[in-house]
Amino acid sequence: MHIFAAILALAAERFLPLDPEWRQPERLIANADWFKRRLIARGGVFDGVGGVLALVLLPALLVSMIADTIDGWLFGLFDLAFAGVVLMYSLGPVNQAATMMAIDEALAAGDEPSASRRVREIIAAEPPPRSELWSRFVARSAVMRANDRLIAPLFWFLLVGPVGAVVYRTISIWRDDAEATGFRAGARTVHAWLAWLPARILAGAYALVGRFDEVLSAWSVAPYKCAIPDDDAAGLCLCTGCAALGIEPQEDPAAESEVQDAENAVIVMPPHDDSLHFAMSLLDRVQMLVVALLALFMVARIAA
After folding, report:
1. pLDDT tens for each residue of 171-212
2. Which of 98, 111, 88, 225 is nearest to 165 (CA)?
């Protein structure tokens, strides 16, 4: 049932115009803030990994209770719908495929304000001042964040069910907690544990659907070339994803500034960058590979 729910959720995520507001993180964590503050006040292990593990039981128990309550309703259709909705929430809040397509359309239409707003959603930071660089920045961020926004929630959903997806999503939110440094550090530690294996699955997918030899080479040097503090999984996905695209994981400083010939007053602009299109294609192939594998597993289980 979970495999079928995953296929439906991925199809809805890819093809339906879903309102992103319903899966904003504030809706999930607002009711847990009171408990979080009480745990942090106790100090010690509760202001760290212990507090994260204790607090994440709240959404886990809630999802588990709902799943148990509706178990078997209407021949299992309620179970299927609930599982699919939880997975779709856990893949949010950013729908990368739709947002990247909107960026491409806005840039093609010359609508830089709209494109800038959507670039900010993808990279979770202010975009570079020059729009010619946006395509490559979006491509890098998309392949780096594909683990958090696709593979890891799906992996834990298939392994544990809706509880696994919502636990991963919740901890991903808490690792950016601005209030408590100890709790945030604990969330980042737990997130690193949960993201470790899915990140390597994603790196393998990049190798299969991208540039195989280049991805394997990038995999071996990722801890040194693409190290990201407190996020080994993101560094690996950045290095291997960029290798699959054939781009460097870090921007060349010379490319970030316009080169001006003082004598002739000629501004040398970089050539047209197709990184955004390549990244969209790469992530589409990754998702098709995932759906194909899920379909094979489902057919194998039915045949057995």
Report:
1. 988 887 766 677 888 889 999 999 999 999 999 999 999 889
2. 88
